[in-house]
Design brief:
It is a single chain. The chain is mainly α and 153 residues long. It has eight helices and no strands. It is globular.
Amino acid sequence: MKTSADIIAAWCDLAPGYRAEGLTWYQRAHDSARNIARQSGHSVATVGGVIARLSPAVTWGHNVRAAADLCITGDCDYGGWGPNLERARMILSDGWTAPPRGPKIAAFRCNIVWPDHSGAVTIDRHILRWLGLPERVTPAQYRALEVPWRAAA
């Protein structure tokens, strides 16, 4: 298990450009959600949920394009895991009334919607790979993994 010191060391080893990009990533994601919300008439919170729901195993660019298409037209060329598209459609129809079972999508949504103060920790497959863990962890494992990330922040 990586400690907060390991996380901080990895952060310090990054080139300054990567660190700068990382510090503004969620604000830029929020700006994308806000732009889609303006175009579609949905709230930023709803669009953030759609983006988060469509995110597993797709690139960021494809994720945002699919979310924009779905929010604006009601359909999209997704290509990801089928149930996520249906769940994203449910978010469009009823907002965020049925949050996901797993913590990653909920955390990702919170960080997109409230980038400056969500308090959520998004642990995605890239982080899990860096940690040497499988790409899926239980909610209890996820909560345990959040601890050193919060300490490092």
